[in-house]
Amino acid sequence: NILAAEKPPGLLTHGDQREKKNTLVNQVTDYLIEKGDYVPRAEKSFSPAAANRLDRNTSGLVAAGKSLTGLQELSSLFHDRSLHKFYRCLVNGVIKNEKYIKGYLHKDEKCNKVTVQETETSGALPIETRYRPLGDNGTVTLLEVELITGRTHQIRAHLAGTGHPLIGDYKYGRRTLNDEYRRKYGLKSQLLHAYRLEIPEIEGRLSYLSGKEFTAPLPYLFQKILKEEHVEENK
Fold first, then answer.
1. 83 CB-side CA count, 13 A
2. Core-most of 15, 201, 215, 225, by most CB within 10 Å?
């Protein structure tokens, strides 16, 4: 009923006006056709689809529905926020304590950029983010972030708003620092990875997935940077 796919940075989850073919959803569909799990001519209206979306330059887990039941159930879990989503990211600065932050996010459609503010204004959506530090080297910190709401660029903008932008994020981060990582490691995208999905206790046809957990290891370059920068997870 469902499939968990790991998206690399640089690949779109869904197609847009500029790119329609080279997408994760198309790769998932081709994979299922090859395995014989999806036969297009036998399906009148359903086609495999992703229940969540990651930014082009964010890597990690995307959950897709192989069946209509799977897609509907996944979509419901994401919509009601009962499915727990955890990310890992490398941010500028040192963070020592776990924190739960709230705010309001406003999106500028013209430039595809969001701003985060503390007070509610017209058109702004409430956001909630929880994070805990996993380790630091005195300059940058590896965080585990739980995305409670799921708004556009939420993690990137929310952490930048606290003074801790993501390494490699040119839209919300610090250019001089990002340039340094690009020179040293060839880094071209933010170090943000959808690391773990936890399915809650559920009933019905997908009850066999209750309590299941899916994880995707950090990409090679992410791991290399952590090693070279001596950012080790706290024991």
1. 23
2. 225
Phi, psi of 198 (to 5 degrees): -120, 120
Cβ atoms within 10 Å, residue 69: 15
Distance of CA 123 to the CA centre of its chain: 23
What is the rounded distance in angstroms from the CA atom of residue 155 to the CA atom of residue 44?
38
Q: How many residues does the chain have?
A: 235
Contact 114, 106 (CB under 8 A): yes
Q: Which two tokens stand for residue 182?
A: 């690009």
Q: For residue range 150-166, what is the model confidence (pLDDT) as tens digits?
A: 888 999 999 998 999 99
Centre a 10 Å sphere on the Cβ of residue 98 and count the other Cβ atoms it contains. 11
Query: What is the tens place of the pLDDT at every residue in 74-120?
Result: 999 998 889 999 999 999 999 999 999 888 888 877 777 888 888 88
**CB of 143 closer than 8 Å to CB of 129:** no
Dig out the tokens for 232 from the structure.
Answer: 């080790």
User: Is residue 58 within 8 Å of 194, Cβ to Cβ?
Assistant: yes
